[in-house]
Amino acid sequence: ATNAAMRTSMKYQDKPLGDKHCATCMQFVPGKTPKDLGGCKIFAGDTEISPTGYCVAWAAIP
Ligand code: SF4
19-29 pLDDT, tens per residue? Predict the structure, then answer.
């Protein structure tokens, strides 16, 4: 499932922005393996977040 409203408002894209991508974001919830789709703590119900995606809410893992 995807959260279309959040994807639009946060300008989610399925490609990285430079070296910024979901796998290096503190909000990412990884899938079974590092290459699998996962979730995002602020994208409720979205189970298809790409580890190599990106959105404007990106924040580095501290
Ligand atoms: Fe990816 Fe954005 Fe979620 Fe970070 S906040 S994991 S960049 S969708």
Answer: 999 999 999 99
